[in-house]
Amino acid sequence: MSAWHRYQPTAQQPWNPGRVVHLYRRCIFGATWNELQRDVSGKPQDAVSRVLSDEARVDGIPADFTRLADLIGNAATQQPNPERLKAWWIYRVLFSPAPLQERLTFMWHNHFATSNLKVKSLPYMQRQNETLRKHATAPFGDLLHAMLQDPALLIWLDAPANRRGHANENLSRELLELFTLGIGNYSEADVKHIARALTGMTVKEGHFHFNPRRHDDGEQTILGKTGHFDADQLTEILLHQPAIARRLSDRLITEFCGEGVVNDTARNELALQLRTTNLDIGKAVETILRSELFFSDANINSRICDPLSFLITPLRALELFDPPPSTLALSEWLGRMGLDLFYPPNVAGWPGGRSWLTTRTVVARANYATAMISGDVYRPADAPDLHALAKKHSATNSDEFEKMMNTLLLGDVNTKQTTESITPAGYSPEMNSVLALLTGFHAHLN
Amino acid sequence: MLNRRSFLNQSSLLSLSPFIPAFLTQTAQASAARKGDRILVVIQLDGGNDGLNTVIPFADENYSKYRDKLRIDKKDIITLNDSLGLPPSMKAAGELFDDNQLAIIPGVGYPNPNRSHFRSMAIWHSARLQSADHTGQGWLGRASDQLKQPGSTAPDAVFVGDSAIPAAIIGRRTNAIALNNEKELMLASKLVAPDNPMSGDDLQNFVQSTVSSSYVAAKQFAASVKNPSIDNSRFPNYRLARKLQLIARMIRLDGGTRIFYVSQPGYDTHSTQKNSHERLLTEFSRSLKAFLVDIRQAGLSDRILVMAFSEFGRCVQENASAGTDHGTSGPVFVAGESVRSGILSNYPSLVDLDDGDLKSTIDFRSIYSSLLTNWLNIDATAPLGGNFKPLKVVA
């Protein structure tokens, strides 16, 4: 019996709104009331299928999403304005019919963490983002090959400075340590030899360029294999190392499972699946999302909600996307919450988990919730009518309103105490209860 | 005097929730255990400060010769010894000097000085001379990599300002953040910390205590902003002072950050320099002094050292538009109660010039080396990419 056997509802672990909300909050930035009702009344594996096949999100998707997204993205790179490029991605996360792809694009942005602080080119950063999205669920080799020809990554890791006789080990080291094998699975000699194998790779007129005159075509010994390697051959060697599957397995588990939820047996099993499926990321994600482990009580609210989820999930749940909020304003809030898209703090990316929460970011989250309730994420400010939303979905009295908001925003956690202990002034009791839900401690877990 | 702990003991905030006291007691203990942790604050004087009119070799007749329009009258100079002095705009810095809280290090530079703002700043940030080694990481970022405490969620380095985070504080693993203003640390709604009992679940307890302490910290911070008697500070109304005041408040909150960074723009004074330079140095000196007074009142003087630098000095000869052009070496200041106060290096000769510029008498990495080794107590080799004999700046 696999550690990742499929979830079937039981009396102890029933298919209920809490589990549907868990699926949505963890994977695709929340659900609207209609999406939630549709899935609660259906079968769990069908709900997962919808998430995996980009059919889960139906509300608020603009008919001309692709055209609008391209328009915003092109304007950002032509100006050029990094704030607009961040807003472009946030627009995609908020409105894309394929939100799981956006979730994984963010995961890869954190894996191949590249900062425009050094790259200083929005077109390169946008192109990298598109590459991450294109290969988000592909076999990892496709993504790795693409990234080793990605101008933004090459500049970020000093590839153009790495040439025959003048090794720059930056790309080589991070390729081993961060992108593929992880510390402990290679030697310093491997770093040096791989750096030599990667010589000659550069960026010319905005595109990947291989300069044979700068390439060191001497013999290298890499992870026990000796030969005259180029980047492609080197990548093949790395892709066949057992450690890469384990590293990717850990990356996916961190993304989709909570702290301490997955034991070593399950980790190893997922790594083994990755090895035997040509490191197929999509299949591994499916294994996780379909599993009993994913829907177990232990895995619900067991992870620090990342800033992107914290930003987008309530907007979708409360249907605050029509008319659209200012994605530029949302981007500012995201930065205050510690997530400056396209500007990861360093090559290891955002450390995530508990490090998302500091005094500054907790205050930013609380203030964001206040801004959202007050309508300050719209320009000009426009307070949302949550009563109209409740009424539309037949929650007419205040008890029904509270229950509905509690379910929509947090699943079915018991937040009674939290609600009572938060007493902001100046709003109706109903608004207070929504603000309490958005700023209480359960809001920081998903 | 009201330090953090006495504030917590006296504060009515404690009555906000039955959950708070136990938690804050824990925090107070935690911060006591961390009390030895030293903090470095860096002030970057952007644009190339004219060192000759900052630390003035008034006894040298060449000074008057080279500086016709920009000369500071001898009678106005605040004398530091029989040959050097500060301009009157730096009265506050002079007071710090007299109070043994200021080290002045003239003639700081590096070999083959580069007169480009960008390149020279990259050299100071990275502590590397070759542009190929300007990889976006800096000496304090690398230092933070070494200082990193496992499990800490505090930012390793905080930049206060609205421009991009300077490369100096970016490392391979550090978490450097930028903070624009104090509103970012204050709650917009009157939220009360959740008072759920501790559940026994480690993650839930973490979230609950972090959220609670953040809300309390935000209120404490807001109270200190509204009520000057709480932090008892007298900060002058300068942009640099406001930034340093924000840093002082963050230090009082004791979030665990060890590196703070701030810049004062405007030193690119190519023409009619006199008034603007005077204004800049007044802002710098008064802001610095206010910060150190505030830190002393908080009882935190033994934990704070401030370094101020500029990417280069200016040409010795003033130019035809009563300004100065890009030069080479300049003075660095290190301030705080733990500093070895005084003038710590030789003043460059005004006769033996390097193509019209002051030759440096000391490498900037000697100062970095001391700050890393003797102040932050870490091995300076990796941050500096080599061994540099530390200039003793810590008393």
CATH topology of chain B: Alkaline Phosphatase, subunit A
What kind of sheet is the major sheet of chain B? 9 strands, mixed
* Alpha plus pi helix count of chain A: 24
- Biggest beta-sheet profile of chain A: 2 strands, antiparallel
What is the typical, i.e. mean, pLDDT of chain B? Answer: 87
Beta strand % of chain A? under 5%
Which structural category fits the helices and strands of chain B? alpha/beta
Classified by CATH, the class of chain B is: Alpha Beta
Strand order of the largest sheet of chain A: 1-2
How many domains make up the coordinates of chain B? 1
Low-confidence segments of chain B, given as residue ranges, are: 1-33
Which strand-content bin applies to the residues of chain B?
Answer: 5-15%
The chain-level structural class of chain A is mainly alpha
Helix coverage percent of residues of chain B? Answer: 25-40%
Shape call of chain B: globular
Structure described in brief:
With 446 residues, chain A is mainly alpha-helical. Chain A contains 24 helices and 4 strands. Chain A has helices at 17-27, 33-40, 44-52, 65-78, 82-95, 99-111, 116-119, 122-134, 140-147, 151-156, 170-180, 188-197, 231-239, 242-256, 264-276, 281-290, 292-295, 307-317, 327-336, 359-374, 386-392, 398-410, 416-421, 429-439; strands at residues 201-204, 207-210, 220-222, 225-227.
